[in-house]
Specification:
protease, Thrombin, subunit H, 7-stranded mixed sheet, disulfide bond, Trypsin_dom, glycoprotein, serine-type endopeptidase activity
Length: about 575
């Protein structure tokens, strides 16, 4: 198919909750008149709209603070700012604009993983040569924060000076145009586009019967949604099939997927991000077609079958790349920024270190990213509750997700060891996203170590390893050891500035708390009922790593796999 490279955008009227107690100063035009169903936008009604010229108008963009503009990566090939000018406060392309200012572009930053052939990560930032002053005609738009949802049918607005039909230029005086279009769910959009991939980093909008859309020269322009008194950018015009064709909605870059990347590129005056949630239920979940299988809905009838089919601690082996090597790894993010690691331990629970949370944690501030080698560009899960243990010494945190993730090769729960015996010398691993390792994209890092005897024999609740460095961003991640093809988490990495030692609190210390909070799921037993080591033999008491008598039962270690307690789904 021949895909056009630019498209629709507009306002999503959503019932939403902000992730911060104070709303950012953005997305509030002083001139708020709308022409519902019309074509020409009133001057000043979209004060963040930017017109990009080289030398004539060829793309759109949106002002996100005093000196930065958001646009599509395909609008700035080669990331070359030469000859590029941004016009702000402009209404007409052919007549005078008394409220207009212009700036040359000093710097272009395209997303490092932009792929022109698939339109993935079609997003770029433009730094203006100097800041602009906000007026009634020049003001920033708010950006959708990570965790935002856009359900099928939500009304949207798109603006720009693009063609009014495929190959038909906007006639003079070429005033700014606006059009109202509804969100099209990604499943339905994927059915429309067939083999062309509509990823989680994209959002679609348009009418099934066609007739309303963005078109050539609209590329990079904003798709916005109004929440209370704020307009929030949900997407930016990326591509589509023709213009306003039936059953081919416009496809936009989903802005909420790039909060971390945007904030990492801008220093100082940060854009305003607001999280919002669509009202009602998502009808797109019921859509299926060839290549888009039905969503498996959890019901009382299939619950027991699902429970039996899920096995924890099984990672994809012999992977060429690290992706999928540790499928239980989670990135805990506060307002879109990575704070700590964690592990998926149950159908909708994630475990981490309690020190990741300063003061009483507010669940709505947090999201969890699963199944990703890198932290950015992924679809986060909202958090509905955070429960901290309250014991002497180290403590753990359990986060409940708003929805259960779909398990696959890249998302699996890990088994939890509740005080079992792994022999001294057992090879174990730790993983995390330390700052400064893995480059700018913060790729998941791993380190191999081995269990050792603890120097303090009275440390019955401790487990010791060879020395390796733990940094702040590694905190909450797992120390994990393998037994009979299953991986068990034996401890949680502490959140400290730097730790070069190898003494950790055994996970079994928190057995009662974890059983109450996330449920207890017994792993299959091996042979005589105990879990064996990698050689198939039961560890001798003389060679186990600091196992206390209170942690044994009937001469064998008490071992459980704390995973997937589906009964909690009914709570």
């Amino acid at each position: 198919m021949a895909f056009r490279v630019m498209y629709v955008a507009a306002a999503l009227t959503l019932l939403a909750k902000e992730s911060k107690s104070e709303k950012p100063d953005c997305g509030q035009p002083q001139l708020s008149t709308r022409i519902v169903g019309g074509d020409e936008a009133p001057p000043g009604s979209w004060p963040w709209q930017v017109s990009l010229h080289r030398p004539s108008q060829y793309c759109g963009g949106s002002l996100i603070n005093h000196q930065w503009v958001l646009t599509a990566a395909h609008c700035v090939p080669g990331a070359n700012p030469a000859g590029l000018t941004a016009y702000l406060g402009r209404h007409s392309q052919r007549r005078s604009n008394p409220n207009e200012v212009n700036r040359t572009v000093a710097e272009v930053i395209t997303h490092p993983h932009y792929k022109g052939e698939t339109n993935e990560n079609d997003i770029a930032l433009l730094k203006l040569s100097s800041p602009v002053t906000f007026t009634a005609y020049i003001a920033p738009v708010c950006l959708a924060a990570s965790g935002s949802t856009f359900y099928d049918g939500v009304d949207c607005w798109v603006t720009g000076w693009g063609n009014i039909a495929f190959g038909e230029v906007l006639p003079p005086p070429q005033n700014l145009q606006e059009v109202k279009v509804p969100i099209v769910g990604n499943r339905r959009c994927q059915c429309d586009y067939g083999q062309y991939k509509i990823s989680e980093d994209m959002v679609c909008a348009g009418l099934q019967e066609g007739g309303k859309d963005a078109c050539q020269l609209d590329s990079g322009g904003p798709l916005v949604s109004k929440q209370e008194n704020h307009w929030i950018q949900a997407g930016l015009v990326s591509f589509g099939e023709g213009c306003a064709q039936p059953n081919f909605p416009g496809v936009y870059t989903r802005v909420s997927q790039y909060q971390t990347w945007i904030k990492s590129q801008i220093t100082g005056d940060q854009p305003g991000f607001i999280t919002f949630t669509s009202a009602g239920t998502n009808s797109d979940l019921s859509v299926s077609c060839p290549g888009v299988p039905p969503v498996q809905v959890k019901t009382a009838e299939n619950l027991q079958t699902q429970t039996k089919s899920v096995v924890c601690g099984r990672a994809k082996l012999n992977s060429v790349a690290p992706a999928g090597r540790w499928p239980w790894m989670a990135s805990l993010q506060k307002n879109g920024e990575h704070v700590c690691g964690g592990t998926l331990v149950s159908v909708d629970y994630v475990m981490s270190d309690a020190d990741c949370f300063s003061g009483p944690p507010v669940a709505s501030d947090w999201t969890v990213v699963l199944g990703r080698l890198q932290q950015n560009g992924s679809n986060p899960f909202k958090v509905t509750s955070i429960t901290l243990s309250n014991q002497t010494g180290s403590n753990v945190a359990v986060l409940r997700l708003s929805a259960a993730p779909v398990l696959n090769d890249y998302i699996q729960p890990i088994c939890l060891d509740d005080g079992g015996s792994f022999p001294v010398g057992t090879t174990c691993w730790a993983a995390g996203w330390s700052s400064g390792r893995g480059g700018e994209e913060q790729v998941l890092q791993e380190v191999q170590t081995s269990l050792q005897s603890c120097e303090n024999p009275s440390s019955r609740s401790s487990i010791c390893t060879g020395a390796f460095t733990v940094e702040m961003a590694d905190g909450g991640g797992p120390l994990m050891c393998q037994q009979n093809a299953s991986w068990y988490q034996v401890a949680i990495l502490p959140r400290v500035s730097t730790l070069s030692g190898g003494t950790f609190q055994k996970l079994g210390h928190f057995r009662d708390f974890l059983a109450r909070t996330a449920g207890l799921f017994s792993a299959p037993t091996f042979g005589d009922g105990s879990r064996t080591n990698g050689t198939g033999s039961t560890p001798s008491p003389a060679t186990v790593a600091t196992t206390s008598s209170s942690e044994t039962r009937g001469g064998r270690p008490a071992q459980f796999c704390l995973c997937l307690c589906f009964l909690l789904l009914f709570l």
